[in-house]
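hey so i finally got around to running the thing on that chain from the lab meeting. sorry it took forever, my laptop kept dying and i had to restart like 3 times. anyway pasting the input first so we r on the same page abt which one it is
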Amino acid sequence: MNFRSLDDFWAFYMTQHSKPSTRRWHFVGTLGAILIFIYSLLFNWRFFLLVPISGYGFAWYSHFFVERNVPATFGHPFWSFICDFKMFGLMISGQMDREMKRLGKRPVLQPF
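ok and heres what got predicted. didnt touch it at all, straight out
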């Protein structure tokens, strides 16, 4: 798929993250990656190796076993990286449900 803009990709990206638990796993992975990154800067640079393992590990788990699709990272790594942080920001600010409604996606109710 070819996308003309980040906004076009964002709409597609959100279809790939339709389940709340998928987004929660992404949140955990992104938060873990941020914390490990900070720790590695402050204390031990060898922990840098764990940053992508945390960030992508939780996200890919959610795609394969929760959402049951292929991670968008495989086809569009740069835009996926940006959208991961956009989604993280929307979740931390409590705006994710509103964004899903804006995009015309009804939140799927399910347990974590």
